[in-house]
Write a structure and sequence with these properties.
The chain is of the alpha+beta class and 361 residues long. Helices cover 46% and strands 12% of the residues. The chain has eight helices and ten strands. The chain has helices at residues 2-19, 23-28, 30-50, 78-95, 97-127, 159-176, 178-212, 225-243, and strands at residues 270-274, 283-286, 292-298, 304-305, 308-311, 318-321, 325-326, 329-335, 344-347, 355-360. Helix 4 runs antiparallel to helix 5 and helix 6 (159-176) runs antiparallel to helix 7 (178-212). The chain is flat.
């Protein structure tokens, strides 16, 4: 019996850590487990590399051969340029000023270059235009002939790109202005309708092939250059109108781009201003235990701002929510008394990056 009791205690001691583990000790082992996974992954990669066959270092490379009638897109530096421009854009956000403007221009130019390549590729595949396809050194050029007989392939489409662009403009308009939101909604709706129509054509072609045994690939549509140009012009027009460049109106009291002096005015306790998507100050001083008023001036034309007060952080409990309105305009907020001993911040509900602290005295 004593032997059986000892054996049972030994088994229980072995199973104990699994039945009731020491979680604090296990959590401390998580970094070690992650390290082991990383080491195992690179070990597996090295093992696969060693089994990949003889290396071609120093060996002559063969020229790639493309079968006649098959179109392959050529090499492109556009993805690399987009990545470099994106990195420069994010890095320049911290620098601001001319660096941010230059990085933004480079990013847009790289996108335009990539878009131009994509449109040329699309038109080549869609219209079957004569494009040089190098099969070998002596081969003549041929035009892409489409998929082999009896194979159904959907034609190329720019609609996914247009849906993404429309959604981006629509979300941009939610933060900037109603005109952009409506333009983005229209772009997204038209692109989705076009995508639905193409899907219907694809479905009918496939159903016909199932019924008759004869595959007819739908004719690809041409690039919707007119629609793209029209929406681009509307976007530029709305942006220019809000900036005061188009229409002759001033978008802001500071057309030069320099912040406007936030002048005191009225009977409000505090005057605050917003311009260039930023508050004019990082902190304000308000009386403790007594209601007060805030005169808030929004100098950003067509861009909505407001002043909201929260406890502790910008995501803490909301104490006061001011009306959201587009600039150039102003509002006077009646704020209830703030309790002593607590920490308060003010924030723009639309642009959470606009944040400041409140000093009670």
């Amino acid at each position: 019996m004593e032997f059986l009791r000892s054996l049972l205690e030994w088994v229980v001691s072995l199973l104990g850590p699994f039945v009731a583990p020491d979680w604090s000790a296990l959590i401390k082992l998580i970094p070690l487990g992650v390290l082991l996974l990383v080491v195992a992954f690179y070990g597996w990669v090295f093992w696969r590399f060693r089994r990949a066959g003889p290396r071609r270092i120093g060996m002559p490379t063969r020229k790639p051969q493309v079968p006649s009638g098959i179109h392959l897109p050529g090499p492109s530096l556009a993805p690399f340029l987009i990545s470099a421009a994106s990195a420069a854009l994010f890095f320049s956000v911290a620098l601001g000023g001319p660096a941010l403007a230059v990085a933004g221009i480079l990013f847009v130019l790289s996108l335009v270059a990539w878009g131009r390549e994509a449109v040329r590729e699309y038109d080549t595949l869609g219209a079957g235009s004569a494009m040089a396809l190098r099969v070998d050194d002596a081969a003549a050029t041929t035009a892409p002939s489409g998929p082999p007989e009896g194979v159904h392939l959907p034609p190329p489409s720019l609609l996914p790109l247009l849906v993404s662009a429309g959604s981006a403009v629509m979300l941009f308009g939610v933060a900037v202005g109603l005109e952009f939101a409506l333009l983005g909604t229209l772009m997204t709706a038209l692109a989705l309708i076009g995508w639905l129509l193409d899907a219907g054509r694809e479905y009918r072609a496939t159903a016909e092939a199932d019924a008759t045994g004869h595959l007819v690939n739908p004719t690809p549509r041409k690039t919707p250059t007119i629609a793209i140009a029209l929406f681009s012009l509307l976007f530029v027009f709305f942006a220019g109108s809000q900036a005061g460049i188009i229409g002759g109106g001033e978008a802001s009291p500071s057309p030069s781009g320099e912040p406007t002096a936030c002048a005191e005015g009225g009977d409000a306790t505090i005057t605050m201003c917003a311009e260039l998507v930023a508050f004019n100050s990082e902190s304000i001083t308000v009386p403790v235990g007594a209601p007060f008023t805030i005169r808030f001036v929004n100098y950003d034309a067509g861009i909505p701002h407001n002043v909201a007060i929260h406890e502790d952080t910008g995501t803490g409990p909301e104490v006061y929510l001011g009306e959201i309105f587009n600039g150039v305009d102003e509002r006077t907020y009646d704020v209830p008394a703030l309790t002593a001993g607590k920490t308060y911040v003010y924030i723009c509900t639309v642009h959470p990056n606009m944040l400041g602290t409140i000093i009670l005295q």
